[in-house]
Recover the amino acids of this structure.
């Protein structure tokens, strides 16, 4: 019995329960006693009482079955020795479950006289559309057969229990249908529970982010010491072949961090003046009609996916800067196509709308009385802005700039395409540098194995990135909160 | 303020001379300041225009593909030399179809088939994709064998570029990818009307391929569609439920404070971190399939959730308290008040926020790279569990290809993506204009 089948049956029972429950409630109305809940609440209560425990049980059972199957399969695998062919236990386990999945597709007759060696089994399964890794072993076949037997047993027992639970729940719910039964309150309590669970997902996500990266990072630090990671100045991870472990790469964070901050700095250097002046003009000078055209146009820049900016940098800006530098110096292109400058400028363009719309909101929020006071004393508009409005808006603007900077640091696609992959440590903005995000992408695309430092380092990088941006965001919120009251 | 302070040393005469308060200088500063603002806006708009121009000028040609019309003789001697097709179905699948196209082309151009070097040059005029095209034709209808069919065949990528004028034909032929002979043939076919540009349906239907002319967005479009559906089905209910709890039910407590700060922070977490989360939790821990749009959709859901929650809470907050008081006053329970009265009134705002969140998710690339969506997927995925790619990931993969024809395709794919985004955002704006209500 498949999980899907069981779910359908449970839902059918629960739906039947809904209709019977509602019917019962209707039939009990009409006496002298005023009914507490509307009939459909009784229906829903029966539905929930029947479906909820059964579905929860199915979920728990399915998870537990998976763990149990793996445990029992691992117990049966021969002990690993130095000359075990297959690199890791998880790989072995994957092969066993692959064979088991393949055996499932065989007909009964084929299963009755199963070949005993893997070499014979492989073409048979391949003809059923299950491709297996070539280094499967003969001993895996009985384990896979056992696996399938256990699966069948677990799913039939689980299915029966779930259906019994659903029936019991329905009977329980139906027995409670009564004129004064507080069905609405019961249903509403469950709704509230669901709402709380939904908002818990936000917390779960954060916990998931931190824990998942933390565990991998700790594993990483078991093979590479934290001090060489945080203070190392050479990045040379050296993709080692699986299992060889001989050559140990160097994982120095410093060049990546330097590149990240440098590119973000160049981007901010470009985006802050442009964005800020655009915001000032739109908030203080522009007429309504100009504003209603220009503001959405600038915000289009924020809606363009970063991959498009990356492509723009790769195809247009990078070659343009290279050719420009070649023309200026008469032949020698001192700006490389992939450089800090290219990535910084394009990222700056991406950040303009963030700076401008955030600062625009903050500048418009400065009370008009401050402006009126300053203008009334005879200062010009620009003097009012520079000496009154901007100081009043400063904390908000600093907060906005911090948020923008954290976005620049976490930006991936632009730098992947425009900044280059060489982990250099230099101060020439015309050369290529690389960033934390680029290296995360580099280390984790392609074939990977989960226990080499070459891949685990990506999680250490991710955790570093997460904490840098988190600190900047919290600091930004703190600044905004602390100074906000002053002018209101 | 010192500039404008009264100058106590001003001479007091009967008709006081105008005090010099530097008006000229200050007005000049005023104009300069204003100019800075205009320049800033101009720079922003300039880059917007430059970006759009760069994409559209590179990409609009991708929607047309050069094809050549051939009268192909489906010769049974070549398709099935041993006449075994009745018994062995593999014969039709493995037959040498490109030879047929080459012979047809040679006949058309009057090149003798014995001229080996010329034939080799000729073979590069049309795409290798002709093999699949003719195979489909013949397998679907074996009775065509022996007849002559008029078929539009894709040209090779280089010929396509040359035909569109993207290859500089003035340089020496050894330094470009098409030879003079090929150009001559091309012009001849063009003159006869046998070679022309036709609408590129392949761009929307083909999967991954190493040849530019037969690679398309088919797989990516399906993958993105699945992911958007998953994001919509997961993030809208969860986001709305979470917002309702936080906005309508939750009392101010330590816990709700933590949730609030959390959501604001999640909205600012770099998207690539969500990719790491998906890789570690969904793929490594729960053993979900790599490259599947299900995992991609779930990762994007987690990423979009904060956006939707923030938008929904703003929409709920905009519903005036009087509505709530009235509902409660006529005897509705709190849940009834929320679901029957507040939520319907907040729906347009929620919808707008959701569409904007979806548009954001559609353009997101970085997290998808980490969960293995950078895959060479040639066959269209059937379920969300099958390997697939996504629109922005396809753009990323094509951007890394060197050939000129891929630059064109990349820009074409970007145009498709931008059109989707524009439609979504305009829908959101229209919804907001149409249903926005001020109390």
């Amino acid at each position: 019995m498949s999980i899907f089948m069981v779910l359908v049956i449970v839902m059918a029972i629960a739906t039947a329960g809904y209709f019977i429950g509602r019917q019962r409630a209707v039939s009990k109305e009409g006496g002298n006693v005023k009914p507490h809940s509307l009939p459909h609440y009784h229906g829903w209560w029966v539905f929930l009482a029947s479906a909820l425990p059964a579905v929860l049980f199915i979920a728990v059972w399915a998870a537990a079955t998976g763990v149990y199957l793996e445990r029992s399969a691992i117990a049966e695998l021969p002990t690993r020795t130095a000359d075990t062919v297959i690199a890791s236990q998880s790989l072995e386990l994957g092969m066993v479950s692959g064979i088991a999945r393949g055996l499932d597709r065989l007909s009964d007759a084929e299963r009755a006289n199963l070949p005993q060696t893997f070499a014979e089994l492989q073409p048979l399964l391949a003809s059923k559309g299950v491709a297996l890794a070539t280094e499967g072993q003969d001993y895996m076949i009985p384990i896979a057969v056992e696996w399938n037997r256990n699966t069948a047993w677990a799913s039939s027992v689980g299915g029966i229990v779930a259906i019994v639970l659903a029936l019991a729940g329905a009977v329980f719910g139906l027995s409670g249908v009564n004129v004064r039964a507080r069905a609405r309150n019961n249903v509403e309590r469950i709704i509230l529970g669901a709402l709380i669970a939904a908002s818990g997902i936000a917390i779960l996500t954060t916990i998931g982010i931190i824990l998942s990266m933390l565990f991998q990072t700790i594993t990483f630090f078991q093979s590479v010491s934290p001090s060489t990671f945080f203070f190392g100045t050479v990045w040379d991870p050296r993709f080692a072949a699986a299992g060889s472990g001989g050559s140990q790469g160097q994982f120095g964070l410093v060049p990546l961090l330097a590149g990240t901050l440098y590119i973000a700095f160049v981007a901010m250097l470009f985006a802050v003046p442009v964005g800020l002046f655009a915001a000032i003009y739109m908030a203080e000078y522009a007429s309504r009609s100009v504003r209603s055209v220009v503001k959405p146009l600038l915000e289009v820049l924020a809606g363009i996916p970063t991959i498009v900016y990356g492509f723009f940098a790769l195809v247009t800006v990078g070659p343009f800067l290279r050719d420009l530098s070649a023309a200026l110096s008469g032949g020698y292109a001192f700006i490389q196509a992939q450089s800090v400058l290219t990535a910084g400028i394009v990222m700056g363009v991406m950040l303009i709308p963030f700076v401008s719309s955030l600062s625009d909101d903050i500048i418009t929020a400065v009370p008009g009385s401050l402006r009126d006071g300053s203008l009334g004393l005879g200062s010009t508009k620009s003097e009012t802005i520079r000496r009154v409005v901007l100081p009043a808006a400063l904390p908000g603007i600093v907060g906005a700039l911090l948020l923008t900077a954290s976005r620049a640091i976490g930006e991936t696609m632009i730098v992947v395409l425009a900044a280059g992959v060489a982990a250099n440590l230099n101060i020439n903005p015309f050369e290529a540098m690389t960033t934390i995000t680029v290296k995360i992408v580099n280390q984790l695309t392609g074939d990977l194995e989960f226990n080499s430092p070459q891949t685990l380092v990506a999680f250490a990088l991710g955790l570093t990135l997460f904490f840098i941006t988190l600190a900047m965001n919290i600091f930004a919120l703190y600044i905004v909160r602390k100074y906000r009251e002053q002018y209101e | 303020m010192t500039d404008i302070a009264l100058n106590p040393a001003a001479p007091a005469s009967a008709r006081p001379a105008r005090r010099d308060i530097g008006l000229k200088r200050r007005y000049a500063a005023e104009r300069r300041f204003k100019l800075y603002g205009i320049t800033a806006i101009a720079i922003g708009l300039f880059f917007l225009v430059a970006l759009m121009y760069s994409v559209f000028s590179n990409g609009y040609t991708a929607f047309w593909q050069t094809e050549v019309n051939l009268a192909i003789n489906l010769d049974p001697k070549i398709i099935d030399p041993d006449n075994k097709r009745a018994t062995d179905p593999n014969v039709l699948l493995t037959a040498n179809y490109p030879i047929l196209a080459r012979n047809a082309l040679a006949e058309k151009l009057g090149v003798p088939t014995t001229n080996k070097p010329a034939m080799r040059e000729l073979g590069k005029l049309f795409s290798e994709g002709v093999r699949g095209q003719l195979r489909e034709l013949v397998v679907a209808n074996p009775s065509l064998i022996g007849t002559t069919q008029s078929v539009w065949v894709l040209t090779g990528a280089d010929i396509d570029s040359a035909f569109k004028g993207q290859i500089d034909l003035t340089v020496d032929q050894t330094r470009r990818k098409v030879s003079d002979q090929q150009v001559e043939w091309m012009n001849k076919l063009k003159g006869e009307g046998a070679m022309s540009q036709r609408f590129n349906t392949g761009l929307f239907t083909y999967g991954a391929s190493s040849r530019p002319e037969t690679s398309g967005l088919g797989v990516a479009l399906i993958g993105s569609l699945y992911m958007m559906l998953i994001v919509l089905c997961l993030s809208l209910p969860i986001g709305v439920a979470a917002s309702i709890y936080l906005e309508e039910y939750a009392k101010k407590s330590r816990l709700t404070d933590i949730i609030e700060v959390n959501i604001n922070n999640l909205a600012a977490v770099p998207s690539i971190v969500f990719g790491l989360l998906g890789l570690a939790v969904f793929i490594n821990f729960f053993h979900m399939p790599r490259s599947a749009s299900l995992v991609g959709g779930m990762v994007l859901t987690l990423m979009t959730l904060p956006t939707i929650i923030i938008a929904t809470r703003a929409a709920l907050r905009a519903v005036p308290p009087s509505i709530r008081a009235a509902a409660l006053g006529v005897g509705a329970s709190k849940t009834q008040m929320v679901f029957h009265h507040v939520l319907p009134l907040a729906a347009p705002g929620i919808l707008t926020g959701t569409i904007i969140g979806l548009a954001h998710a559609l353009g997101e690339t970085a997290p998808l790279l980490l969960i293995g969506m950078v895959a060479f997927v040639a066959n269209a995925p059937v379920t969300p569990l099958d390997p697939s790619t996504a629109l922005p990931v396809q753009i990323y993969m094509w951007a890394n290809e060197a050939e000129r024809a891929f630059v064109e395709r990349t820009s074409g794919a970007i145009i498709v993506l931008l059109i989707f985004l524009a439609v979504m955002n305009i829908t959101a704006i229209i919804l907001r204009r149409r249903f926005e209500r001020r109390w």
